[in-house]
From TrEMBL:
<feature type="domain" description="Anthranilate synthase component I N-terminal">
    <location>
        <begin position="14"/>
        <end position="138"/>
    </location>
</feature>
<dbReference type="InterPro" id="IPR005801">
    <property type="entry name" value="ADC_synthase"/>
</dbReference>
<dbReference type="InterPro" id="IPR006805">
    <property type="entry name" value="Anth_synth_I_N"/>
</dbReference>
<feature type="domain" description="Chorismate-utilising enzyme C-terminal">
    <location>
        <begin position="182"/>
        <end position="436"/>
    </location>
</feature>
<dbReference type="InterPro" id="IPR005802">
    <property type="entry name" value="ADC_synth_comp_1"/>
</dbReference>
<dbReference type="InterPro" id="IPR015890">
    <property type="entry name" value="Chorismate_C"/>
</dbReference>
<protein>
    <recommendedName>
        <fullName>aminodeoxychorismate synthase</fullName>
        <ecNumber>2.6.1.85</ecNumber>
    </recommendedName>
</protein>
<dbReference type="Pfam" id="PF00425">
    <property type="entry name" value="Chorismate_bind"/>
</dbReference>
<dbReference type="GO" id="GO:0000162">
    <property type="term" value="P:L-tryptophan biosynthetic process"/>
</dbReference>
<keyword id="KW-0808">Transferase</keyword>
<dbReference type="GO" id="GO:0009396">
    <property type="term" value="P:folic acid-containing compound biosynthetic process"/>
</dbReference>
<dbReference type="InterPro" id="IPR019999">
    <property type="entry name" value="Anth_synth_I-like"/>
</dbReference>
<dbReference type="Pfam" id="PF04715">
    <property type="entry name" value="Anth_synt_I_N"/>
</dbReference>
<dbReference type="GO" id="GO:0046820">
    <property type="term" value="F:4-amino-4-deoxychorismate synthase activity"/>
</dbReference>
<keyword id="KW-0032">Aminotransferase</keyword>
Length: 450
């Protein structure tokens, strides 16, 4: 069995200085644990110069696209971590699935406008990565055995001279504007509640989009956002047209490690309080909220069902229900659902059976997605999709792309929303859609002097 080659580098808790060295390279991508401020994530992972790039053809179904991805991993070949080193990634795929990739899995209407024209998925096949382990406090270059010796030498030289890279500028040309006013939001919520009363669905995740024209380097924007809102499933992915995906996600979608599966849905949000007493009161309100617990439980049930399609019968469990997690701007109610992959199933089967994540669609899922397409004026593209890696051993980790922004064609887009149930109050939901992303929008407006 072939092992990766590993080259130790000085440990950095913040990956920014290392990533700056490849920021302009094709396929530059960073999956970021948000250290040193965010404490839950263990590994950062960055790479560039993919050996191949995969974007689905216009009418290609998910199953066919996933077959291409499997084939690319097979061709690169399995590689293990060296003895005594724990590595999340030993070479393989890194990229994103947009929310609209779900159209390649399920039949959905096409009412929402696709005005951002982001491909439904984009993956690079990478033969190397720079991985920092924040538990062990190590940073190292990891090379798949197929990577050529000359390329290893070049990368070791590149990362060994940590010269500061001058920061480029980024600014918004105007303040962010939402695409729905309060009245339009009210009408959409009332429509969802009419569907719920009619027995069509129990819950629908509804979002609005905020946009502003912008100029400059999105990496500078990402660094400002990361400082303001450190989260354990953050990520930056450059796009070929000078655009980028900027994700400050606190939510795991799916993790597969040695055949064990975990998903951690977030359902239930409260703002942080201004004083310790007010903050503790907000946290307690969330823990005591019957509405939020009911919403969370609905999604846990949906995810148990989704995971059950690819997991061994009897292996799906709920080890955590209604746990409190706190972030710089909000408290969240989080649960965990686990399972074990069934024989003959892999991480891509698991994604195909559960994408997009249930926490950001509603229940039942397909009907909720149809209603989202009817009521949100534009397609979600990246929002509520996933940033992920899948390595040659079958190890997967992925986020749900909430608190995420897309820079494309001189525009920056950001989305905020929440789960709507029978007793939701539209004013509170409208406010929550803004609260969730306020820190992101304000950070970039301040950076731009607006």
């Amino acid at each position: 069995m072939h092992s990766c080659l590993v080259h130790a580098l000085p440990y950095l808790a913040d990956p920014a200085d290392y990533f700056a060295l490849v920021r302009q390279a094709p396929g530059a991508v960073l999956l970021d644990a948000g250290r040193p401020q965010a404490e839950r994530g263990r590994f950062d992972l960055l790479s560039a110069w993919p050996l191949q790039t995969f974007v689905p053809n216009p009418n290609e179904p998910a199953a066919a696209f996933f077959q291409h991805l499997r084939k690319s991993l097979d061709q690169l070949g399995r590689a293990e971590a060296p003895a005594n080193i724990e590595l999340p990634f030993t070479g393989g795929l890194i990229g994103y699935l947009a929310y609209d990739f779900g159209r390649r899995i399920e039949q959905l209407p096409e009412q929402a406008r696709d005005d951002l024209l982001l491909p439904d998925a984009r993956f690079g096949l990478y033969g190397w990565a720079l991985i920092s382990d924040h538990q062990k406090r190590t940073s190292q270059l990891v090379f798949h055995p197929q990577l050529e010796a000359a390329e290893r030498t070049r990368l070791i030289a590149l990362f060994s001279q940590l010269a500061p890279v001058a920061a480029a500028s980024f600014k918004l040309l105007e303040a962010f504007r939402g695409d729905l006013d309060a009245e339009q939001y009210r009408q959409a919520i009332e429509r969802i509640q009419a569907y719920i009363q009619a027995g069509d669905c129990y819950q629908v995740n509804f979002a609005q989009r905020f946009q502003a024209p912008c100029a400059g380097d999105p990496w500078t924007a990402y660094q400002a956002l990361r400082t303001a809102c450190p989260t354990p499933f953050a990520g930056f992915q450059s796009l070929p047209d000078g655009g980028a995906i900027l994700s400050l996600s606190p939510e795991r979608y799916l993790q597969v490690s040695q055949g064990r599966v975990e998903t951690r849905p977030i359902k239930g949000t409260r703002p942080r309080g201004a004083t310790p007493a007010a903050d503790a009161a907000e946290a307690q309100l969330l823990l005591d909220s019957l509405k939020d617990r009911a919403e969370n439980l609905m999604i846990v049930d949906l995810l148990r069902n989704d995971l059950g399609r690819s997991c061994r019968i009897g292996s799906v469990r709920v080890p955590e229900l209604f746990a409190l997690e706190s972030y710089p701007n909000v408290h969240h109610l989080v649960s965990a659902v686990t399972g074990e992959l069934a024989a003959g199933k892999d991480a891509l089967d698991l994604i195909a059976g559960s994408f997009p994540g249930g926490s950001i669609t509603g229940a039942p899922k397909i009907r909720a997605m149809q209603i989202i397409d009817e009521l949100e004026p534009t397609r979600r593209t990246l929002y509520c999709g996933s940033l992920l890696y899948l390595d040659v051993r079958g190890e997967l980790d992925s986020s749900i792309a909430i608190r995420s922004l897309l820079v494309k064609d001189g525009q920056i887009s950001c989305w905020g929303g929440g789960g709507i149930v029978a007793d939701s109050q539209w004013q509170a939901e409208y406010q929550e859609s803004i609260t969730k992303v306020k820190v992101l929008l304000q950070t970039l407006e301040q950076l731009s002097g607006l």
